[in-house]
C-alpha cells in the first residue's frame, strides 16, 4: 500500500525533502481500481466509468496530488493541443488585446496558447520558433511579423501550419488574416471630410505592410474621392513616441492642417500630447482619428475616434485557418473595421453612442 496521503516520506538520496510524484499506479491502488480505469477517468474515455468509481478515482488523485503527464497523453493522441503565438511588438496594447482574444478562441477549440515575444529581433524570433517546434505545437501564429518561412526550415520540415494574424492583405503561399486597413483609412478620412475638414495630414509608421502601407493608400484614395489634395505626411515609428514626433513635425511643416489620421492608436495618443503641449485645441483646431480601437483610445483626452478592428472575429478566423490546407496562392481572411465616433473628430455628444462607461457614470451620478 502507498504511504498515507498526509505522510511525509523522505525523498531519495535525502535530496530536497519533497514527496516523489504520485503515479497512476498509486492512484489505482488508493482507489481500488485498475490503472486502465484511472486512464479512462483522466482521458474521459474511451470506455465509460461508473459515476461512483470515477468520483473515487478523482478523490484519490486529489489526495495524492496526482498530475496527468500531458506529454505522454499528447504522444498517444498525436497532438499536443498546444499552439504557439510569436508577438513582435508586445508593448503595443493592440497586440495585448489581440492575444487575449486568441487565448479565448484557442480555448474554444480545445487548445492552449504558448505566447512568446520577439521584440522585432530576427535572432530572438528564430530561437523562439525553434523552441516552439521542439515542443511539437499543433500550429504557430505570428503577430506583427511578415515572417518568411524559408527562414525557419525546422518549421517547414515539421509540417506545422502557421498563420500571419496581422495582415491587411494576402501573402502568396501563406495563411493570413487581417482587417481591411485601406478601407478603414477611407472610412476615417470620409468622416473627417463630413466634419468639413479640408487639410488632412497622415502620421504613418515605417516599414508597414507593403509600400505604401494600405492605410496610406486608403488615405490618398479618400482625399482624391473628395476632391482634396494630399495633406502633409510624416513617417515615424509605430508607437506613442513616434506619434508625438509626428505631431510636432506636422505642425512645423504645415500650419494649415486641420485634421490628422494616425495609423495606429499609440501614434494617435502621442499626437494628442504634441498638440496639447503646443496649445492646439482638439478637435476645434485640429481633429484627430486613428486606426485600431484599443481600450487606451477610449481613455485618452479627448477620446479618440477610431476605426476599430474586430479582434474577436480575427482571433476566431486565425485559429480556424490553422486547420485549412496551405495553397500556393495563399488563403486570406479579411474583415471590415467599425467606425467608433468619439469627441476627437468633432462629433457632438448627441452624435456619440453611449458606452458602458457613460452608462455607469450616469447611474453613479443619479445615485449620488
Topology of this protein?
Layout: H1 24-31, H2 35-42, H3 51-64, H4 70-77, E1 82-87, H5 93-108, E2 112-117, H6 122-134, E3 139-143, H7 153-158, E4 162-164, E5 175-179, H8 181-194, E6 200-205, H9 214-225, E7 233-236, H10 240-253, E8 259-262, H11 265-277, E9 287-292, H12 295-299, E10 305-308, H13 311-321, E11 331-335, E12 338-340, H14 356-367
Parallel strand pairs: 1-2, 1-3, 3-4, 4-5, 5-11, 6-7, 6-8, 8-9, 9-10
Antiparallel strand pairs: 10-12
How would you describe this structure to a colleague?
It contains 14 helices and twelve strands. By secondary structure, the chain is an alpha/beta fold. It folds into three domains: 12-68, lambda repressor-like DNA-binding domains (434 Repressor (Amino-terminal Domain), Orthogonal Bundle), CATH 1.10.260.40; 80-180 and 314-335, 3-Layer(aba) Sandwich (Rossmann fold), CATH 3.40.50.2300; 181-309 and 338-360, Rossmann fold. The strands form two sheets. It has a six-stranded parallel β-sheet with strand order 2-1-3-4-5-11, sandwiched between helices. The longest helix is centred in the first third of the chain and has 16 residues, at 93-108. Residues 1-16 and 359-367 have low confidence and may be disordered.
Index terms:
Rossmann fold, elongated, disordered N terminus, single chain, 6-stranded parallel β-sheet, 3 domains, 368 residues, 14 helices, 434 Repressor (Amino-terminal Domain), alpha/beta, disordered C terminus, 6-stranded mixed β-sheet
* Cα distance spanning the termini: 66 Å
Main sheet makeup: 6 strands, parallel
Q: State the helix count.
A: 14
Strand order of the largest sheet: 2-1-3-4-5-11
Work out the strand percent: 15-25%
Amino acid at each position: 500500500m502507498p504511504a498515507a496521503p498526509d505522510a511525509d516520506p523522505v525523498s531519495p538520496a535525502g535530496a530536497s525533502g519533497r514527496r516523489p510524484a504520485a503515479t497512476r499506479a498509486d492512484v489505482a491502488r488508493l482507489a481500488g481500481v485498475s490503472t486502465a480505469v484511472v486512464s479512462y477517468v483522466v482521458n474521459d474515455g474511451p470506455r465509460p466509468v461508473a459515476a461512483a468509481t470515477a468520483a473515487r478515482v478523482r478523490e484519490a488523485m486529489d489526495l495524492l496530488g496526482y498530475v496527468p503527464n500531458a506529454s505522454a497523453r499528447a504522444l498517444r493522441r498525436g497532438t499536443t493541443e498546444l499552439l504557439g503565438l510569436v508577438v513582435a511588438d508586445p508593448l503595443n496594447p493592440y497586440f495585448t488585446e489581440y492575444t487575449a482574444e486568441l487565448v479565448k478562441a484557442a480555448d474554444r477549440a480545445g487548445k492552449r496558447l504558448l505566447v512568446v515575444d520577439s521584440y522585432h529581433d530576427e535572432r530572438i524570433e528564430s530561437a523562439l520558433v525553434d523552441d516552439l517546434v521542439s515542443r511539437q505545437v499543433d500550429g504557430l501564429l505570428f503577430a506583427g511579423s511578415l515572417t518568411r518561412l524559408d527562414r525557419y526550415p525546422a518549421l517547414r520540415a515539421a509540417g506545422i501550419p502557421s498563420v500571419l494574424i496581422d495582415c491587411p492583405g494576402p501573402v502568396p503561399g501563406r495563411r493570413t488574416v487581417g482587417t481591411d486597413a485601406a478601407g478603414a483609412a477611407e472610412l476615417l478620412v470620409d468622416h473627417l471630410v463630413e466634419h468639413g475638414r479640408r487639410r488632412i495630414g497622415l502620421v504613418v509608421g515605417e516599414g508597414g505592410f507593403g509600400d505604401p502601407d494600405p492605410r496610406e493608400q486608403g488615405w490618398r484614395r479618400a482625399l482624391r474621392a473628395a476632391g482634396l489634395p494630399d495633406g502633409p505626411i510624416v513617417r515615424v515609428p509605430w508607437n506613442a513616441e513616434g506619434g508625438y514626433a509626428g505631431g510636432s513635425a506636422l505642425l512645423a511643416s504645415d500650419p494649415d492642417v486641420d485634421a490628422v489620421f494616425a495609423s495606429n492608436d499609440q501614434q494617435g495618443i502621442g499626437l494628442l500630447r504634441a498638440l496639447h503641449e503646443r496649445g492646439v485645441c482638439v478637435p476645434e483646431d485640429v481633429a484627430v482619428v486613428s486606426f485600431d480601437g484599443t481600450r487606451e483610445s477610449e481613455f485618452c483626452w479627448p477620446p479618440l475616434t477610431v476605426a476599430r478592428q474586430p479582434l474577436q472575429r480575427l482571433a476566431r478566423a486565425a485559429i480556424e485557418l490553422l486547420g485549412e490546407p496551405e495553397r500556393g496562392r495563399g488563403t486570406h481572411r479579411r474583415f471590415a473595421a467599425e467606425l467608433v465616433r468619439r469627441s476627437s473628430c468633432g462629433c457632438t455628444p448627441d452624435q456619440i453612442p453611449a458606452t458602458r462607461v457613460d452608462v455607469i457614470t450616469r447611474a453613479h451620478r443619479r445615485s449620488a
